[in-house]
Amino acid sequence: MRISERGLVSLIRRKLESNCSSREVILGPGDDAAVIAHPVGNALVISTDALVENVHFRLDWATGCLLGKKAFLASVSDIFAMGARPQTCLVSLGLPVRTEPAFVEDIFDGMLEEANRLGASVVGGNISRSDILFIDMTVTGVVQPDSVITRAGAKVGDSIYVTGELGGAALAAKNLLEGRIDGAMVTRAEAALKVGNEISETESDNAGVIELLSRFFVPKIRADESLLLAEARICTSMIDISDGVGSDLGQICEESGVGALVEIGSIPLFDKIPTMAMTEDSDLTELAINGGEDYELLFTINPTDEARLHELLGTNALCAISRIGRITPESEGVVYMNSKGERFERFAGFDHFAGRAAGNR
Amino acid sequence: MRISERGLVSLIRRKLESNCSSREVILGPGDDAAVIAHPVGNALVISTDALVENVHFRLDWATGCLLGKKAFLASVSDIFAMGARPQTCLVSLGLPVRTEPAFVEDIFDGMLEEANRLGASVVGGNISRSDILFIDMTVTGVVQPDSVITRAGAKVGDSIYVTGELGGAALAAKNLLEGRIDGAMVTRAEAALKVGNEISETESDNAGVIELLSRFFVPKIRADESLLLAEARICTSMIDISDGVGSDLGQICEESGVGALVEIGSIPLFDKIPTMAMTEDSDLTELAINGGEDYELLFTINPTDEARLHELLGTNALCAISRIGRITPESEGVVYMNSKGERFERFAGFDHFAGRAAGNR
Predict the structure, then answer these.
(1) Which of A231, A288, B248, B305 would staple B234 via disulfide (CB 3.0–4.6 Å)?
(2) Residues of B in contact with A6 (CB under 8 A)
(3) Which of A26, A53, A131 has the CB atom closest to B54's CB atom?
(4) Residue range(s) in chain B whose domain bears CATH number 3.30.1330.10
(5) Statement: the pTM of the whole predicted model exceeds 0.95
(6) CATH number of B159-344
(7) What gap in Å lies between CA A247 and CA A283, rounded to an integer?
(8) Which class for B109: exposed (0-12), middle (13-18), buried (19 or more C-beta within 10 A)?
(9) Selecting from 3.20.20.70, 3.30.390.10, 3.60.21.10, 3.30.1330.10, what CATH number does the domain B5-146 have?
(10) Where in chain A is the domain with CATH 3.90.650.10?
(11) What is the ipTM of this complex?
């Protein structure tokens, strides 16, 4: 690092000053801790998530800006998945001595862009020297206690829904890890992606690859959707899909004491796949179920509320949703079935320590 | 790691269940995020800090339990330094694949022991695979907004005080890094140290080394002291000494727009030094000023409030405090002077990226 810790901290503080203009921030970065006003009648919601070099990304293809965006989005996704509104975040960086200050600035620029878009202030953090780069983000939110949507309320007979399309992030990760998409393309994607995931016209030739990369680096956080669902109080359980439908639906079933029957063919798959990104072993269904990192919502709802759900979505122009199955008694387990009625071995989801079927993080 | 991620998470959740019995914890570990009741009229205080392998500790001498204690204490210290009461914490672990589950359990045992002692609940966290071990802790607290003590209020003429004794943690670090104290002794220290830093009688022969190690691993967090000082509203500024008096007093001066004159001889030094831990270049004054990690409090106070300060301390049996100097105009800078009136070059404090004078983290 060609800058002192104090110099780096000053640089970051200047960058953060404008972002802490929210009236809720009583004291922003620069003291022992940040001080935040808390809205009366609300509970505090808090979660943490980390991006680690050589595990979640490699520096030969990741850019600081896109890492900053992804680190924030992966963390804030957990806040929305509770039906809560994000308020603040703190970033703890582990930085190798070789890290350029400009790279650190890029991390903060990317993070701030997304935090501003989704209504959160970056109020503090920490930097440590480290042999590997890591970005650990804690996000806080606020919620009226009776609007919280946990993983534990799914009931037998409930319908299971997911938002958007799945598998894109895992396919992007597979291409990055296997070298079919390189750092030069990621850099072009960074330039082409603006807040809101619009792809600029100058990059229309590469639009397919950029769209694919956006699923990995700038996942579509369902902010408005989750807040409206929470307000409507029609979801019996909700989770964000960080480890794949297999693992995350498994969490809901475990916490709710229920089983599930999923119709594999009804899982909405990312389908704008550029030719160069598709290999023989790229089974999108497999990636959607075992891949993860899409950060779409998975939720359950009593069938009597489905009309209300679709009305809510239509009126507010929310994203597409798909019914992928239904909740069954716990004794029936979690079953994945195709349209011919053939059952597949239960999908386990990604395990960070045991490795996984697809990909090799 | 000889356990799946899911197995490890289950193990940790069982361990955390009993600790989340606080009525303030609406929803503890196991969902997308934790949900916490927030006391009306209070602001949220939040801070984060990390311990990183090969930077803050080495695995050939650190134990899981002592790392868990230190990670929590270093983070919670920032909450108390604002005059706030800690409420919850989240732990984000980076774990090498080789990590034994028992080591992870030890981290949580140590952390929980200290968190319970100081009134905080561990409400959530994250585990990631990582090439190096890191423990990143975020602690939240609550405070009445007008009781907050920042770094920014020191006034010319204020007296500068520190709690306890300084230099012990840095001397312990020096001995650990230079190999004079090894892992076997750390393991004995772990067994001998109970909550509250009492040394058991069976280890009286090694009491000196254990006491020294306790300064590094289980620093004396001034919980009662900081809360009483906040309540009394007599401190014009406060900081916890994490990087040494040099750096941390420098922070107060920078934020307050003032200078300082420190009488070096009045800095209270850790003096129970075991013979084997003292080397020719172990200058305790140097370690107290540039070493850090003591987590004692440094605060400023108007001289007219000093009688009240001493009365408060005596009545409540708080720790010893020492007046080490006074606040001067900004134009006079920060000056360190000995009893003969000789001035020393301004002490810079520890810079994690630029290296430092004493020690070699």
Answers:
(1) B305
(2) 351
(3) A131
(4) 5-146
(5) no
(6) 3.90.650.10
(7) 17
(8) middle
(9) 3.30.1330.10
(10) 159-344
(11) 0.91
Q: How far is B23 from chain A (nearest CA, A)?
A: 13
Classified by CATH at the fold level, domain A5-147 comes out as: 60s Ribosomal Protein L30; Chain: A; (3.30.1330)
Torsion of CA B71, B73, B75, B77, to 10 degrees: -160
State how far residue A96 is from chain B, nearest Cα, in angstroms: 9
Residues of B in contact with A43 (CB under 8 A): 26, 35-38
**To which H or E segment does residue A230 belong?**
helix A223-232
Q: CA-CA distance, A182 to A203, in Å (whole number)?
A: 16
Q: Give residues with Cβ within 8 angstroms of A10, minimum separation 6.
A: none
Q: Inter-chain contact A352–B32, Cβ cutoff 8 Å? A: no
**Cβ contact A128–B5 (<8 Å):** no
Nearest to B78 among A32, A50, A95 (CB): A32
pLDDT in tens, chain B (361 residues): 566 777 888 889 888 887 766 789 999 998 999 999 999 999 999 999 999 999 999 999 999 999 999 999 999 999 999 999 999 999 999 999 999 999 999 999 999 999 999 999 999 999 999 999 999 999 999 999 999 999 999 999 999 999 999 999 999 999 999 999 999 999 988 988 764 445 555 566 688 899 999 999 999 999 999 999 999 999 999 999 999 999 999 999 999 999 999 999 999 999 888 888 877 777 899 999 998 899 999 999 999 999 999 999 888 888 999 999 999 999 999 999 998 988 887 564 444 454 433 333 3
* Ranges in chain A annotated CATH 3.30.1330.10: 5-147
